[in-house]
């Protein structure tokens, strides 16, 4: 298991901590595989009652590693990122997130699939998929308009407008905005303790019922977005945007008609 994902176990609570601070916790294929393995094992392990996903006090994650996107982009449903997100979406037990600092790209998307999110007021969320020549992923084109309505969703997903932890609560993406990362983690851990006291079968059944009205549609959207996303990673627009990030310059889309 990679040390860039720290896995901690305390009684029925499994904590997955993103730990690549020198790259703002940017997620690599190896990290996604570690997260997927941990979630798949936790799904089968009856003694795990709740999962907490977090980063550190300054950063949740800057999203998918952009060098990985350029050098070895995901190719489809068997890729590690798909395996991780599938395990998260289909996880039958509660998943809680504690978020501080940047939560970019998949760092925001994955929150849409958590049951409870506790976030620092000043957290910086963003879904800059179009800005990177890509498209919404893992159900965000379905879930975000459902949460915020189509007009706001176009700001968040077409323009990649950033938003804070306070706004994430207003948008229905997070439960509570706390003073800072430490307070968000403390509150998330309290909620995890509370989940551990609840009857697990009733929790799992209720989680399934909450998702039942839309889960089939969500799976269909995830598959469609995934096909487009994988293709977009090979597009000249994405190549320009991703290369611009690694070269620390502004992208130039003027040549694209
Ligand atoms: N992939 C790869 N490396 C990344 C990264 C990413 N997604 N995000 C940050 N890094 C790296 C930087 O290249 C830098 O590495 P270096 O020190 O070797 O040059 C280091 O992490 C610190 O990042 P930096 O940009 O200097 O930090 P910052 O505090 O100024 O900005 C962010 C933080 C998150 C706003 C900024 O890094 C960013 O916008 N990252 C890209 C986010 C993104 O587009 N993600 C993909 C979404 S699909």
TrEMBL record:
The keyword Isomerase applies. Keywords: Isomerase, Lyase, Peroxisome. One of its GO terms (molecular function) is enoyl-CoA hydratase activity. It is found in: Peroxisome. InterPro entries: ClpP/crotonase-like_dom_sf (IPR029045), ECH/Chromodomain_protein (IPR051053), Enoyl-CoA_hydra/iso (IPR001753). Its main location: other. Its EC number is 4.2.1.17. It is an enzyme of class 4 (lyase). This is Enoyl-CoA hydratase. It comes from Pseudomonas nicosulfuronedens.
């Amino acid at each position: 298991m990679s040390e860039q994902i720290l896995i901690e176990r305390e009684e029925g609570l499994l904590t997955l901590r993103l730990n690549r601070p020198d790259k703002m916790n940017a997620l690599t294929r190896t990290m996604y595989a570690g997260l997927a393995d941990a979630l798949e094992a936790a799904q089968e392990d009856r003694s795990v009652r709740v999962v907490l996903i977090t980063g550190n006090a300054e950063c949740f994650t800057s999203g998918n590693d952009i060098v990985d996107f350029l050098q070895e982009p995901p190719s489809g449903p068997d890729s590690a990122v798909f395996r991780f997100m599938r395990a998260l979406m289909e996880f039958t037990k509660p998943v809680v997130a504690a978020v501080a600092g940047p939560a970019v790209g998949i760092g925001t998307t994955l929150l849409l699939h958590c049951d409870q999110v506790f976030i620092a007021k000043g957290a910086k969320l963003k879904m800059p998929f179009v800005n990177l020549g890509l498209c919404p992923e893992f159900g965000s084109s379905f879930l975000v308009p459902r949460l915020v309505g189509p007009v706001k969703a176009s700001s968040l997903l077409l323009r990649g407008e950033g938003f804070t932890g306070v706004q994430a609560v207003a948008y229905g993406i997070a439960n509570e905005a706390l003073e800072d990362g430490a307070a968000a983690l403390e509150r998330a851990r309290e909620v995890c303790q509370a989940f551990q006291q609840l009857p697990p079968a009733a929790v799992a059944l209720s989680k399934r019922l909450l998702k039942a009205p839309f889960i089939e549609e969500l799976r269909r959207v995830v598959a469609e977005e995934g096909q487009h996303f994988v293709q977009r990673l090979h597009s000249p627009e994405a190549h320009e945007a991703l290369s611009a990030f690694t070269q620390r310059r502004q992208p130039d889309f003027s040549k694209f008609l």
